[in-house]
Amino acid sequence: MPSKIERKGKDVGKVAIYPGSFDPITYGHIDIVERALEIFDKVIVAIAYNSEKRSLFTVEERLEMVRKVFEHNPNVIVDSFKGLLVDYVAKTNAKVILRGLRATSDFEYEFHMASMNRSLNTHLDTLFMMTSKDYFFVSSRTIKEVASLGGAVEGLVPDLVVRKLKEKFKLPVAKRRQIGWDD
Ligand code: PNS
């Protein structure tokens, strides 16, 4: 029996996959999803289990946050995936991988990733959307750094993410080291 994502992906017109770490989701990501919905019928936000990256939030925590952010929008499906992105995309009927571009500094990484994905599956294209000017300086990495040092991130991430960041950084230093965030 196909999974919920596979079934949804097969019946609903134009679908884009928006993959990433979303550690945590920012208004920059949300802006990309909202603008993509002007072009696509559905957007699948796909959170990667990425063994190479040290993350602050577990995939389950990220799924919960992203689901809450989009809970009122039935055209956004939130899921996670392990392994290759192209294999995950093949389980849906999406033909497009969506990525946001903030600055030319993002370009090289994105160009390599898009080229590799296209070489793995020639039927897939990556579509880049420029991040809105209000968020071009916002990244999950800088949000974590600022929040960890007690800086204000309100207005750059949803309030529920602000609360989660505050909870995380209230952890004792020993625990932060244990989860790999604070070395
Ligand atoms: O938000 P990020 O960390 O820039 O997202 C990167 C992500 C998750 C899209 C990328 O690492 C990915 O697709 N990972 C899955 C593994 C994979 O398919 N790797 C080959 C692409 S080069």
Care to describe what's here?
With 183 residues, this protein is of the alpha/beta class. It is 43% helix and 17% strand. Strands 3-2-1-4-5 form a 5-stranded parallel β-sheet, with helices on both faces. The N and C termini lie far apart (45 Å). It binds 4'-phosphopantetheine. 4'-phosphopantetheine binds next to strand 1 and helix 5.
Based on helices, strands and strand pairing, what is the structural class?
A: alpha/beta
Describe the global form: globular
Q: From N to C, what is the helix and strand string?
A: HEHEHEHEHEHHH
Radius of gyration: 16 Å
Major sheet: order of its strands?
3-2-1-4-5
Could you tell me how far the N terminus lies from the C terminus, measured between alpha carbons in angstroms? 45 Å
Global mean pLDDT:
89
Largest sheet report: 5 strands, parallel
Instruction: State the helicity in percent bands.
Output: 40-55%
- The DSSP helix count reads 8
Ligand kinds: 4'-phosphopantetheine
Tell me the total number of β-strands.
5
Strand content: 15-25%
- In the predicted model, the low-confidence regions spanning at least 5 consecutive residues are none
